[in-house]
Structure formats: C-alpha cells, structure tokens
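Quick entry between incubations.
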Amino acid sequence: MINDMADLASGKDKIVARTLAICVHGLLLLLLIFGVSWTNKPQAPLMANLWSSLPPLAEPASEVLIPDPEVPAPAPAPVPPPVKVTAPKVVAPKPVVAPPTQADILLKKKEKDAHVGHKPVVKKEPPIKVEPALPPKKVNEALERAQRQEVEKKQAEQKEADLKQAQADKEAQAKAAAQAAVQAAAQAKAAAAAAQAQAADNKLINEYMERIRSKVRQNIPELAGLQGSPVAEFDVVVIPGGDVLSVRLTRPSGYPSYDAAVERAIMKSQPLPLPPNPELMSRFRDIHLVVRPK
Amino acid sequence: MNPSVNHDMSILSLVSGASVIVQVVLLLLLLASVFSWYYIFLKYFALRRAHNLAVEFEKQFWSGADLKDLHQRALSSREGAGSMERIFEAGFREFMKLRKQPSMDVRAITDGTGRAMRATYQREIEELESNLSFLASVGSVSPYVGLFGTVWGIMNSFRGLSNVAQATLAAVAPGIAEALVATAMGLFAAIPAVMAYNWFAGDVNRLAIRYDSFIEEFSNILQRQVN
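Done. Structure below.
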C-alpha cells in the first residue's frame, strides 16, 4: 500500500526523470558528434592562377557603365573586348519575354569569347543597367508575375503544411484509440486473472493459517488442571521470514497459565510457516490466532 | 599521423566500424547509463520531497499542535504524507489501541508503540534506499565492462597488424581509438552513478537519523501521556 502511494506520488517524477535522462544522453551524443572532430581530411587542393601583370580592369568597366539602350537587342558581331560580350550574358537569362533563340546565340558567343579573369567584374554591374533597358511595362509584368508566383507558392506550402498537420493529428488520434482498446482488453483480462488468483490465494492463505495454528498447538505443553477447552485469541504481528514481532492477547481464555503457555508457544514456533510467494505476505503481517488446546 | 592515410575518425564511424563485441559492450553501457541517469533523477526528486515533507511535519509537530489533530491530518492526507508522518501515524495508532487495553502497563504500551514505529521506519528507509544498489553496481561494474570492450578491440587491432608487412602506427591507431571508445563510455556511465550513489546514500542516512530521533522524542512524549 505504501508502495502504491509512492507510485502515485512519483508518477510525474518518473516521466520527468525519463525525459531528463534522455536529454542528458542526447546532449552527450551531440557533443560527441559535433564537438569532437577527429576527422583528418587532407585539405582540398587550392587552385591559383599566377598573372605576370594585371589585365586592364578599370577601363572596360567604365565603358560598360555608360548605359547603352541597345543592350537587349542582339549584339551584332563578336566584339573583341571581353566585357562588352559578357554584358549580354546577364540580359539573356533575365528577360523571359526575349526570344530564346537570340539569347542562345548570345550565350554561345559569350562562351566562345569569354575570358575567365573578367567574369566577376561584369556580373556585379549589369543588373543596374538592364532594368532601364527593359520597357517598364514588361518589367511590371515580370514583377507581378514573380509576386503572384511567390504568393501561390506560399499558399501551396501553407496548404501542404496544413494537410500534414491534419494527417499527423489523425494518426495520433487513431493511435490513442488503439491504445485505449488494447488497455481495456488487458484490464478485462487482468480482472479475470485477478479473480482466479484471488481464489487460489485464499486457499493458500487458509492452508498456511492452519499450518501456523498446528505448529503453535504442537508447542503448547500439557497443562494440568485445564478444564473444557479454553479459547485464547491473539493478535500476532509477523515480519517477512516468519519471525514474530509482537504477540498480544486479545481475548483471554480465563486461565492465565494457559494464555501464557500459548504466548510462549507462539514465540517458540518461530519462524512461522509462511506462503512462499511474497505478495501474500501482506495478509500475514497481522494475523489473528484463535488457539484451542489439542 | 601520416597525412596520406585518410581515416574518417568521427565518433559515428568509429562506433560503426568497431567489432560486434565492442558494439554490444557499448550498447550495454549506454543502457546502463540511461537507466542510472533515470534513477538519479528519480531518487533526487524523491529524496528532495522526503526531506521537505519531513521538515514540514517537524514544524507542525513541534508547533504544539494537538496529537489527535495531527493524527487526523495524517490519516486524511495519506497520499501526500511523508515518511515521518507515516511513522507518527503508525505509532499513534498503536498507542491508541494499546491504551484501550485494560491490562497494559506503561512499559508494554511504550514498547508496542516503539515497535510499530520501528516497523514503519524500516519500510520507509527501505523505500528511500530502493534503486540505490543499482547505481552502486553501475558505478562499480561499468568501468570493467568498458575495459573489457577496449581490451577486446585492441586484441583485434593487433591481430590485424600481423597481416601487414610493415607495422605502422597508422595501421593500429584506428582500432585502438575504436576500442578506447568503450572505456570512455564505461567511465561516462560510472562516474555519475558513483557520485550520485554517495550523495544519495548520505541523504538517506541523514533522513534516517532524523526519523530515528523523531521516534525517540515521540516515544518520550507518549510515555509522559500514559503516566
């Protein structure tokens, strides 16, 4: 009973303790995986280009900065300075409206003529120039389209998330229902088993009570001058193992010598015979012994 | 280490590359560690609660409250009652029962109540001490289990060395590192368990002394009541 109460009180503690224990180990695992980097990978090879002299970067850059509105139009011929050629490269991917064939041609040309060293410089600059080059209407359209697409995308994502959530909820509910059903079945079974066990226990208890009584009776000495069959009743507190903690006379028989003899007999009968399974021990803690002489 | 030998030495690859026995040892140690931490937290909460309840009950008891009131309160709040409250309840119940007996002398009454309280006290202490032995055995056994895993792993890695024409450190090192993970795990399981065991054993001891002196004092009070 004490255990039951302790269980009730510490049920919450158990859950908390379990989660904390798992947290500790999760932390340890994270620490080991991310904190300890024993991997000795060789450094990836670094490529370096050596230039004897820097190419003239500043001049072509300034040239491009001067906005020329014809940029989106197909560039006529392969132009020698690398920067001018690369400029269309940015135009090509951006306008969706532009005919694809032109862009393709431009791209191919660019690939033929591009110089590696100049690419980064060009990439940074064109976005500023390209927008004015496009007719504002088109820009607006493109922007609107982009916005619309984004909104649609967001909506779709939201929907998907909702769906997932709903599904997860459903699953959880189904799980809970299944668990409840299983628990109910288990409880029913347990109840039936408990009833059966109860009957068996009672039989066992009676048997052992009889054994205790007979053992005590054997230890009562023959008393002279005893008339009839005096009945003495005792409350006996037994500890596991069969030792007697205390013996108390609850109803004297009327013959003090007989009462004393029975009490001595009880003490002499230690250890009292007890059922082997400890669950029944609780029924034998406080036993009420009614002792008649042999 | 020779930079040309490229071993991936992250923890995960070390564990997954270890031999089966080492892996089993690691799993066992992990389980032991999880359980010992679980009991550590459980015991910590239980002992803290027991201590708080004892302090609270002592305060109530020594504030001069009527014993019958205290007994009623202990009976009505059985779930939340602390060990000391239960000891008091057992003693007082026995005392009331014994006093109703006509042919009882003072000595018998005080002995009876003392025994009743002793019995409850033993049960309470047993409850407080439960699972502590698990912590003790984890603390003393898991380093050895870890060591066993390590020895086994090192044996394997040296056996592998016999197949190599030229013995280099790089050929054995990963195996040894693998094996040492087992020792590390064993120590990780053992250290907190030992510390917690010592800590909790001290706590239980202190609580036991507290209960003990309460029993003595309460016996005295009851004896005075009989006279």
